Amino acid sequence: MDALLNPQQWILFAANHGSLWALWLAVLIHWLLPLSTQHSPFQYWQQYAVLLASQVNKDNDPKQQRKLAGGLALALMCGTLAILLIAARELVWSRPLFDGILLWLALAWRPIDQFGHALAQAIDEHDKGTSRALLATQVNRDTESLSLIGIGKAGAETLILGTARHGACVIFYYALAGGVGALLYTSVVHLHRVWSPSRLAYYPFGLATARLLNLVDTIPMSLFALVLALGRTPWTHLKACWQQGRRWRTPGPGWLLACAGSRFQLSLGGPAIYQGTKTLRTKIGYGVTPACYHLLLLRLKLKHSVLIWLALSSLLLIL
């Protein structure tokens, strides 16, 4: 007990575990002071991605050439960023503080949580216009023709995958590779948003970025699905992950959506429209279509799951 009350012990612990206190400081600042889209440095990253693609992604080029151009553009942007971040990390006077700042820049968990609350409120008021506008800021799919049922389903999917992609996965790569790893992961997420193959102008140019994101998503999202399954009858949810998640086009998101669908008895997946073209997707889960109540319940459960995820990441950093 005396050791726990000794300030010198805490100072020594903080000095030996700089990455740990940087993690919690970054998450706390992010929750209290999240970066808006207008102030995020990734808006310039996306603008440069559009500019670069306009120079090397031509509609009249052969398919293989466009695929190669997409891979080279991805390597150029992420490779250059990685070199700059690694070089800067060697020059700073405090690496934990540097990593914490990078993690703060990489996180976007709080805006996704706010999106879930705002969308649930709009659905509860039967405000289709506001609901569609909110959803359009987060997804590449067409939202103009969505009913409230479709908005609820798309909103639940966005809340689940957004929390994982902008929160849990970022923290996972911070624990593995520090702030540099977290920021590089987020840079790939934003590149995929711009170069998504679901946009006809970026098919097949964006396939390399999509495949890379699917690869780096697989492990953290699958592990986060295990955390989400905690509670009553976890083996039932894990069984649903295995049976339904593997039918999804990408394994990590598939596992996570299947687990959430089983956990809350929700119907997810199904057809989606991208730029006027209907895309068939696997149906996941069973039960009811997400409504306002389900979005709020899902938002609360995801928040608790991220806190558990943070605790587990902290243990990993201590060990």
Q: Tell me the span between the first and last alpha carbons.
A: 22 Å
Count of discrete domains: 1
Number of strand segments: 4
What structural category do the secondary elements indicate? mainly alpha
Average pLDDT number = 89
H and E order? HHHHHHHHHHHHEEEEH
Q: How much helix, percentage-wise, in residues?
A: over 70%
Strand order of the largest sheet: 1-4
Rounded to the nearest angstrom, the radius of gyration is 20 Å
The fraction of residues in strands falls at under 5%
Uncertain runs: none
Shape: globular
Total helical elements:
13
This entry's quaternary arrangement is single chain
Largest sheet: 2 strands, antiparallel
Membrane topology: Multi-pass membrane protein
Family: Belongs to the CobD/CbiB family.
Transmembrane segments: 12-33, 68-88, 171-192, 212-230
Pathway: Cofactor biosynthesis; adenosylcobalamin biosynthesis
Please characterize this protein's 3D structure:
Keywords: Cell membrane, Cobalamin biosynthesis, Membrane, Transmembrane, Transmembrane helix. Pathway: Cofactor biosynthesis; adenosylcobalamin biosynthesis. It is found in: Cell membrane. With about 325 residues, the protein is mostly helical. It has one domain. About 75% of the residues lie in helices and about 5% in strands. It has 13 helices and four strands. The strands form two sheets. The protein has a two-stranded antiparallel sheet with strand order 1-4. The protein has a two-stranded antiparallel sheet with strand order 2-3. Helix 3 packs antiparallel against helix 13, helix 7 packs antiparallel against helix 9 and helix 9 runs parallel beside helix 13. The longest helix is centred in the middle third of the chain and has 47 residues. The radius of gyration is 20 Å and the shape is globular. The mean pLDDT is about 90.
